[in-house]
Target: Orotidine 5'-phosphate decarboxylase
Amino acid sequence: MNRAELFSQIQKKSSFLCVGLDPDLAKIPSHLKNEADPIYSFCKQIIEETADFAVAYKPNIAFFEALGPKGWETLQKVLECMPKDVFSIADAKRGDIGNTSKLYAKAFFESMDFDSITVAPYMGKDSVTPFLEFDNKWVILLALTSNIGSQDFQLIEDANGKPLFKSVLEKSQEWGTPDNLMYVVGATRGELIGEVRKSAPDHFFLVPGVGAQGGSLSEVAKYGMNSTCGLLVNSSRGIIYASTEKDFAKVARQEAKKLQIEMKDLMDQYL
Ligand SMILES: O=C(O)c1cc(=O)[nH]c(=O)n1[C@@H]1O[C@H](COP(=O)(O)O)[C@@H](O)[C@H]1O
Model:
């Protein structure tokens, strides 16, 4: 999916919601556990019920890898049951020396047909660029993450007072463009999202951290929205585990709808 198509989906659905698929066998409703593939059944129902309100889905690969070889088959089935007009994100946080990154890219862009993958910038140019060599595929580079540990490295300032996350933003714009590179920016970072926006005015941001981690959607929009929205805001647990009973998918739908309504208001205000 290219940038114009993504923006068109955002306009069509009046939504910039990404539903995070972090399916944990210990947390899914117990009635699903007798099914042949409980995680698939869980994700499929979540996708079916939220598709009216979501423009993207982000399976977190850890939750599938943890299931062993079968988890990869489940991931593939989950990817295939997503509607064709949504943006798919493999949240794999990969990145290694060049020839290894190339194979990670093939795994997620060719063996599986994800639109995008999350990538860690720490190993630099040759670890990131192999992911950028695929048509209509995207790298989503970790810039300023939502977790507490983000301050350990990302906020460290160089001799000129520039924090490391800004160097990541500046340097990586030599490798990719707003048409194949997005950034992860945590919703818990409030005003700092505005700093990231200054360094990357045209790029899309994947913004996790609303819902369970307490980030504010209105602050994200206030500081992060650009003229083509420029935001995909993720909520995982706040949607998929809003109910752990038989009505889980319907309740997930309600939660997704609540976020979409809020997003529509914010788009009306800032777009
Ligand atoms: O890359 C990510 O998606 C990510 C980056 C980040 O800074 N913070 C973050 O929470 N995430 C992911 O986003 C999801 C957030 O889940 P919830 O907190 O349940 O909404 C998880 O899959 C995290 O791995």
Remarks:
- Strands lie at 17-21, 56-59, 87-94, 116-119, 138-144, 181-185, 205-208, 231-235.
- The first strand starts at residue 17 and ends at 21.
